[in-house]
Predict the structure.
Amino acid sequence: MLNEIYSECETKMLSSIEHMQREFKTLRTGKVTTAVLDNVKIDYYGTPTPLDQVGSVIAADATTIVVNPWEKNLLADIENAILKGNVGATPNNDGDQIKLFFPAMTVEQRQESVKQMKGMGENAKVSIRNDRKHSNDAIKKLEKDKEITQDESKSAQDNIQKITDKYSVKIDQILKDKEAEILKV
């Protein structure tokens, strides 16, 4: 019974960390990633379609993304979709492919990205604390229903706190590493 609660708590906390790391992909770091184009969709025969399904999207270097469509007649549509997507760079259409040249990040932009990242980290910590509360409530209910003793309840809540501390430290380490990555010039 208690092992199920521990397992469920760990699973939820792990998914909170995974969610935070998926959110990090939307942040701009010193090196540009193709993830900045994930939300850009073009009208492909009446269906909104992601760019990576109508051509190759490659990060050529730290500041350049190249979009090479499989059908050249889509170049204008892709260019317009990128412009509407407001990704931080103007598309350059050379008739064969579209290149996006992202300017180097300023110190202020890097600090703003760190600020957003810390907010995402705090949201993950709040989620973990909520998971702890739900697990402790389940343990208290077991104690109230006389399925476990008061000592078992106290021990179980201590275990939940240890799990919470473990994931909180993990979040802090991820944030520290990501901050170093963002601020690295």
Notes: The mean pLDDT is 91. The beta strands are 41-44, 47-50, 55-61, 64-69, 91-93, 98-101.
